[in-house]
Specification:
Order of helices and strands: HHEHHEHHHEHE
Low-confidence stretches: none
CATH topology: NADH Oxidase
Structural class: alpha+beta
Radius of gyration: 20 Å
Strand content: 5-15%
Shape: globular
Bound molecules: flavin mononucleotide
Length: about 250
């Protein structure tokens, strides 16, 4: 729920236009080890918090890792997941229209990032806490009755059978708008980062290192630092190519 305690973070001034920031917010994987002031890290979290959340639960949590030993522990598991990625997903056949040279560049930068993970000044884990109030409603018999009343027996059964997927989507729907706000804020403040999900491959491993309780779902890991390279234009398809009007 909203905690209205006044914090110390204020909205920063910024002269750059939103669309200039958005269209140059590339994945930045080569990062300098220079430390980032704590106030700046909090600024990023504050920007993330301006995102929407399901039922306005505002149930985000951010684990910011700066401790060298924690980073070493994370880097070790991260390397395992990256090695797996290199031997599998990285070798997938080219997608229609995919630029394989761009994939190779991404793999090179990803390898650099994972090998230098312990030197990155901070890694921000964006997590979502289970909404206890909603969980209580969902498990109550009166909710089941309401489901049947509103959607019929078949509809209720379909909803319950798909509940694992729906829950995952619901958690992601709350987490990723915050993540995107954070990516844009970092870009606006001259910090480089990239949305990563190595924890998907090793359920429980990152959570154990971070001491995340079982009612907390980690959605993304964002290594963050001042970039070695330049922000640059993103490469994306033309909008017309990915739109269908009125029906798929
Ligand atoms: C769901 C998701 C998972 C991702 N996981 C990783 C990851 O584990 N490691 C990584 O280096 N990049 C990861 N990325 C970043 C993508 O590779 C990146 O957004 C994409 O290559 C586009 O890069 P660009 O913005 O520089 O064009 C992920 C992105 C998304 C949306």
């Amino acid at each position: 729920m909203t905690d209205t305690t006044a914090g110390t973070v204020r909205k920063p001034d910024n002269d750059e236009h939103l669309f200039d920031i958005m269209y140059s917010c590339r994945a930045m994987r080569r990062l300098k080890p220079d430390p980032i002031p704590e106030s700046l890290l909090l600024q990023l979290v504050d920007a993330a918090l301006q995102g929407p959340s399901g039922s306005n639960a505002q149930n985000w949590h951010f684990i910011i890792v700066r401790d060298p030993e924690q980073k070493l522990r994370l880097a070790k598991v991260w390397q395992q997941t990256w090695d797996f990625y290199l031997q599998t997903f990285a070798r997938a056949d080219a997608r229609p229209g995919e630029d394989l040279a761009a994939r190779e560049r991404m793999i090179g930068a990803g390898t650099y990032m994972v090998e230098h993970m312990a030197e990155v000044p901070a890694i921000i884990f964006v997590a979502v806490k289970r909404d206890q109030q909603l969980a209580k409603v969902l498990s109550s018999p009166s909710t089941l009755a309401a489901l049947i009343r509103h959607f019929g027996l078949g509809g209720a059964a379909r909803l319950m059978m798909g509940s694992t997927r729906t829950n995952a989507l619901a958690e992601g729907s709350t987490a990723y708008p915050a993540v995107q706000n954070l990516l844009l804020a970092a870009r606006a403040l001259g910090l480089g980062t990239v949305l990563t999900t190595p924890h998907f491959f090793v359920p429980g491993a990152f959570e154990a290192i971070l001491g995340a309780p079982s009612d907390v779902t980690i959605a993304a890991a964002l290594p963050i630092g001042y970039p070695k390279g330049n922000f640059g234009p993103t490469k994306r398809p033309a909008a017309e190519r990915v739109v269908s009007w009125d029906r798929f």
